[in-house]
Amino acid sequence: MSNKEIKEKIARLKKEKNAVILAHYYVDGEVQAIADFVGDSYYLAEKATTVSEDAILFCGVSFMGESAKILNPEKKVVMAESSADCPMAHMVDVEKIKEVREQYPDVAVVCYVNSTAEIKAHSDVCVTSSNALKIVKKLPNEHIFFIPDENLGRHIAEKLPDKHFIFNDGFCHVHKSIHKEDILKAKEVHPEAMVLAHPECTTDTLSVADFIGSTSQIIDYATSSEKTSFIICTEMGIFYELMQKNPEKKFYSVGHRQFCPNMKKVNLENVLESLEKMAPEIELDEELRESARKPLKRMLELAA
Ligand code: 13P
Ligand code: SF4
């Protein structure tokens, strides 16, 4: 089947099944192009609570579909690719949370949405890279256990010196592989370019960034800036929207490692297959879902 035929079939099936397609900026551009809504993790979690269709087809990694299901139990949430999972989501365990709670009874467990439903269920509030600072600032607790991402945690901690942070050693392998030395080399070739980086990058890498933000914030910054060239320090899927919105501007990558193999498992073929079968569906134990819903709801309230 040609790409054109696949796209036509997807459009037809979407109507027939009363489904809406949500996609993250890191999936391939051709998948972003057929989605109804494309955005960062926060936008997608929030959007999932307002769509009117009976079913959500998620083009992203597991924790994103899980969050959509946790917040909308009455909807069918189908993943384009069930094996697309974020390794960072598994880089903390419940035992560690219990240990920290025992050691610091006043602690707030702040959980980056890149986490499993089980971890969320043991946390006090969820955050994404676009709202972590705003939310942690609002918490009354002195001690903050930031899980699973150490880099985002350190980035926030630097801005909140009155809080006492406890870090976890989780990381995103894609952002960790974007090195400061490679950015400096790219700067030598493009000295006029601004460096825009995602806070999942290491502290060392962030030290040479002109702007730090979530995927949406990076796109908004580049779009509203008077500058015309940018070195982009995040996953390469973002280039699609950057170029759609700014065809006259220049965007440079730092190297060949800005590639999330899990996000790239999503393609037009598996979107079509999932729509045909309305599977694989996200299914969660009701007790787990209810416990994981609380920190996600708190995020939506505090971020509003
Ligand atoms: P945002 O979409 O919140 O910027 O997060 C990036 C990411 O790594 C999602 O997996
Ligand atoms: Fe996970 Fe990193 Fe891929 Fe995002 S880019 S899904 S944090 S591995």
TrEMBL record:
Keyword GTP-binding: no
Matching InterPro entries: NadA (IPR003473), NadA_sf (IPR036094)
Listed EC numbers: 2.5.1.72
Pathway(s) of this molecule: Cofactor biosynthesis; NAD(+) biosynthesis; quinolinate from iminoaspartate: step 1/1
Enzyme class of the recorded protein, top EC level: transferase
Superkingdom of source: Bacteria
Presence of the UniProt keyword Iron in the record: yes
Alphabetical keyword list: 4Fe-4S, Iron, Iron-sulfur, Metal-binding, Pyridine nucleotide biosynthesis, Transferase
Cofactor entry: [4Fe-4S] cluster
Name assigned to this protein: Quinolinate synthase
